[in-house]
Amino acid sequence: MAISTRGPGNLAPQAPRRSLINDPNVRAIFFQILVLGGVVLLGWYLVSNVLENLARQNIATGFSFLDREASFAIGEAMIPYSPASSYSQALLVGFLNTIKVAVLGIILATVLGTIIGIARLSSNFLVAKLASIYVEVIRNVPVLLQLFFWYAVISESLPQPRQALNPIPGVFLSNRGMKFPSLADDPIWTWVGLALVAAMVGVWLLARWARKRQEATGQQFPVVFASIGLLLALPLLTWVVGGAPTALDVPVLQGFNFRGGITISPEFAALLMGLVIYTAGFIAEIVRSGIRAVNWGQTEAASALGLHRGEVLRLVVLPQALRIIVPPTTSQYLNLTKNSSLAVAIGYPDLVSVANTTLNQTGQAIEAVSIMMAVYLTISLGISLFMNWYNTRIALVER
User: Which domain holds residue 375?
Assistant: First the structure.
């Protein structure tokens, strides 16, 4: 039988019992609960205080005002709207106008910024310096001042509608905007649009199939030419089957303005130009730095394989630079979208402008501001999610 050699003085030391207050994990949870409780109490106090003040001043709360008649006109609308429409319809018009500016602005700013960023790296001294001057000037002038500048240029440099410039038959330029012919109403155009959407889906499926085919067999498929053919052929075939209508709605001067056709207003043009030119200056620097970050050995290796400069940039450098370019470019997309709220300064009826009018007429300040905040938050989160997905898709896969 084993005999213990430990005497009363040789007992194994025991770890000291630690109280809950000394446990770092418990303390961390306690302080988080304490902070959360403080935030909840502060929020409850602010909300109750606001509701009490509104009730004291007999100001109604809630969103029931959205069903009431708006009773104000909106200069530009992508959907049917009149002063007899509801406030919710008016806010929807403002939301769509904001989306239109944001989408077009992001596309054009990306193209322009990429071109200028590449131009800054040009071996041509004049091209590189002009691109540098553009970046330095545009980035250091506040975007609001640029919007005022472009609005003044467009509205002051163009004549009245009766003296409108007519550079191309059916196209008129005046201080009321640019008017050009549009397609006359016909049910076939809806089907042509659906055919175009179907062609886009087909292009996406074709690109996936071609990529998998190349990975399996090493053979390339002419995706670009096939995609162009599909995008042109399917809508064109739908148009021919539908009777091939060619009627146009040509703008005509009636009184002091033009009627018919499509209008690009001075406010929209100034806002789009200002946002695109301003944001492109920042994107240009992101593109330049992204290209610079690609190891020079990649360019040398591609040149040694016989690729010319354009192919080296398109096939070797830019795909690698995208991994660096995408994250900061996402911030610029978000900035462009949020900067579109400055449209109220030049009279373009975006969401902020329409919501301000709604606020002034109804007095529902909290609700109107909450709607604006929720919309911009949703748009920003949507852009971030898409760009994060794209960034993950092009990221290098570790093995």
Answer: 87-167+265-394
Burial class (CB in 10 A: 0-12, 13-18, 19+), 132: middle
Mean pLDDT of 370-399: 84
Query: Which of the residue ranges 8-22, 249-263, 265-279, 294-308 would you say has the lowest mean pLDDT?
Result: 8-22
Q: Does the pLDDT at position 312 exceed 70?
A: yes
Residue 185 lies in a domain: no
Residue 26: inside a domain, yes or no?
no
* CATH number of the domain encompassing residue 93: 1.10.3720.10
Cα–Cα dist 202/16, whole Å: 70
As a whole number, mean pLDDT of residues 209-227 equals 85
What's the CA gap between 393 and 211, in Å, rounded? 14
Could you read off the pLDDT of 96-119 as tens digits, one per residue? 999 999 999 999 999 999 999 989
**Section 155-161 average pLDDT:** 83
Residue 342 burial class via C-beta count within 10 angstroms: exposed 0-12, middle 13-18, buried 19 and up: buried
Domain count of the fold of the chain: 1
Q: Is residue 321 pLDDT above 80, yes or no?
A: yes
Tokens 């193209």 appear where?
111
Record the pTM: 0.80
